[in-house]
Design a protein that fits this description.
heterodimer; A: about 500 residues; mainly alpha; about 75% helix; globular; B: about 90 residues; elongated
């Protein structure tokens, strides 16, 4: 670790006006794009890459990292304000973010999200700077068996996030797993179930239209119902947003969640193929399991928002680790970044650390700068974003619907996806009516394919000998943690139920 | 009261289905404007000026962002001349 060179790189990057401007531009673009449901950070990066052709490497990396970090925060804005995750990684933010908004604390939720995103991103950048080689090696020892166990672990988190009824959570999850089976068999390419009739389903239910349908469209339908039945209140932005950053009292409460979220995000982001969408739920589940008051999660507490937002920005730092150390992208955005590097004549990987060390350090500095840029953009925007809740609900819901439907279309430019979106809107609406949690379906949709593919691969390699999985220490760890999460959550839930039963009794 | 609200929910769903059905023929902006107007009317809004402005401007604006800024082709149906117009900008 050459500190002299590190300092010099920070100076070169942070001192260059071009880099600063490009990064700020990227952060603005990222926040805005991330906030539109249907537009993801990946798309934003892909679309703006051509702008970077004319620039040198570091300004273009600054632009792209700005979009990346901005996008991860931007998704939370729409998740919190309109229950429509702007990016898949924001899907868990709405679990506590939206209730906070409904309680009139939209500004607080937004500032907690922004602050947590920043801290999580810094944690990711720091881990990346100092621990890259170590983590990269660990990430590379993830074979199919380990990935399978990671998916199982992720699925165990479903129990932790199920809210009141673990049974309903499990049913949701099974529904999600069943939905994953639609499409082509990942190993053999044979169409399954109704895929025979619908070409639109050849790739299975597309994730983003499903996400938008379950969360945004379902909420619009529910909102319309509430307006008609008179339950819906029109919020005025009564909050006086004195500071755009959360106050010290709040920070004192949430910093453990931020720390754990940032670390969880970094480690999960470092595993190629596992990204923000998994990390946020794991972080939320972990925070909830470890909390003294798990029953409060989901009612609108800043801890829930902090846990998820720090995780998704920690992922950005994490995903860069395998990219720089091994030339293996950690997620789709870093895959695009890989392309950007190659276009400038630099091949990320182990050689980069030897031949181009100054460049590596400059990238570290650029990521830190991107996080700062996101903080600046976020601070400027919080007051403005919070005003969105003052838009008259009778106009807001149709607007959300219209934007969501367009977002669902734009992923694959396919009308079928809009139909999927509407269909899942119905599913989500029904699930809300009968108090089934929605997040388990989402998590199952992400993890189901991962689970199946890796299981099949593992069995192919081990020639059917499943017991071999116990030989892998990493797989054993995940198995143990998964069991621990399940046991803990069931135990916690029993405790909560007992507490509530006693409270009810004492009121009689 | 509860029945009315559930009925409203069903209407929204039907509008969604109608949107998908008419999307290819009428294009995004027209479909979006129509369902937007209907929903607003359904939930009791009567300020016609606001309704019309929002129903037209929001889809138009979104179309513009997606089409011009993000270069995503969106079916416009009878309004395709707008795509051609803006495409030349």
């Amino acid at each position: 670790m050459d500190f002299g060179l590190l300092l010099e790189s920070y100076g070169a990057v942070w001192g260059s006006l071009q880099v600063i401007l490009m990064t700020l531009l990227g952060a603005c673009g990222g926040v805005l794009l991330g906030a539109i449901p249907g537009m993801t950070a990946t798309m934003g990066v892909a679309l703006l890459i051509p702008f970077s052709f004319g620039m040198d490497l570091i300004p273009s990396i600054g632009l792209l990292l700005g979009i990346y970090c901005g996008g991860m925060y931007g998704g939370s804005i729409s998740a919190i304000l309109i229950h429509a995750p702007g990016t898949p990684a924001a899907a868990a933010t709405l679990l506590d973010g939206y209730p906070m908004c409904q309680k009139g604390q939209a500004g607080k939720a937004l500032s907690v999200a922004m602050f947590s995103s920043f801290c999580g991103g810094v944690i990711g950048a720091l881990v990346m700077t100092f621990l890259s080689p170590f983590i990269a090696n660990m990430a590379m020892s993830f074979g199919p068996g380990e990935m399978f166990m990671l998916a199982i672990f992720g699925l165990s988190v479903i129990i932790a996030i199920s809210g009141k009824s673990i049974t309903k959570g499990l049913i949701s999850a099974f529904l999600g797993m069943a939905l994953c089976t639609v499409g082509l068999d990942p190993t053999n390419g044979i169409p399954r179930f109704i895929t025979y009739k619908q070409t639109g389903l050849l790739d299975g239910f597309q994730f983003i239209p499903t996400l938008i349908g379950l969360f945004a469209v379902a909420e619009v339908i529910a909102g319309v119902e509430r307006i008609i039945s008179g339950e819906e209140k029109q919020e005025k932005s009564n909050e006086k947003i004195k500071n755009v950053l959360p106050d010290l009292a709040t920070i004192k409460k949430i910093w453990p969640n931020i720390l754990s979220g940032g670390l969880i995000g970094t480690f999960i982001g470092a595993i190629p193929g596992a990204g923000g969408d998994i990390a946020v739920f794991v972080s939320y589940g972990a925070s909830k399991s470890a909390s003294k008051h798990p029953e409060l999660y989901g009612t609108g507490i800043p801890n829930g928002v902090a846990a998820t937002e720090s995780a998704n920005n920690g992922c950005s730092g994490g995903a860069m680790i395998p990219l720089l150390s091994l030339g293996v992208p950690g997620d789709s955005v870093t895959a695009i970044l890989l392309g950007a590097f190659i276009m400038k004549g630099i091949t990320p990987g182990p050689m980069m650390y030897i031949a181009e060390l100054p460049t590596v350090y400059r990238v570290f500095a650029a990521l830190m700068l991107a996080n700062l840029a996101m903080l600046v953009v976020g601070c400027c925007g919080v007051r403005f974003f919070a005003k969105i809740v003052s838009v008259e609900k009778k106009m807001l819901y149709p607007i959300i619907l219209v934007i969501s439907l367009l977002g669902a279309f734009s992923i694959n430019k396919n009308v079928f996806d809009v139909g999927v979106c509407v269909a899942f809107g119905v599913v989500g609406w029904l699930m809300n009516k009968y108090e089934f949690p929605l997040s388990p379906i989402l998590l199952a949709l992400i993890l189901g394919p991962m689970c199946e593919k890796n299981f099949v691969r593992f069995m192919n390699i081990q020639k059917g000998n499943f017991a071999a999985i116990f030989q892998s220490p990493i797989a054993d760890v995940f198995m143990a943690v998964a069991l621990a999460v399940i046991i803990f959550s069931v135990y916690n839930q029993r405790k909560i139920n007992k507490r509530e039963a006693e409270a009810a009794k004492s009121q009689e | 009261m509860k029945d009315k609200s559930v009925l409203a929910g069903v209407v929204v769903i039907l509008l969604g289905v109608a949107f998908v059905a008419l999307f290819k023929t009428l294009g995004y902006v027209i479909c979006a404007a129509l369902i937007s107007m209907v929903i607003m009317f359904l939930i009791g809004k009567r300020n016609w000026l606001q309704m019309i402005l929002v129903s037209i401007l929001v889809p138009l604006g979104m179309w513009f962002i997606f089409f011009k800024v993000l270069t995503v082709n969106i079916p416009m149906g009878p309004l395709s001349f707008l795509s051609d117009l803006v495409g030349k900008l």
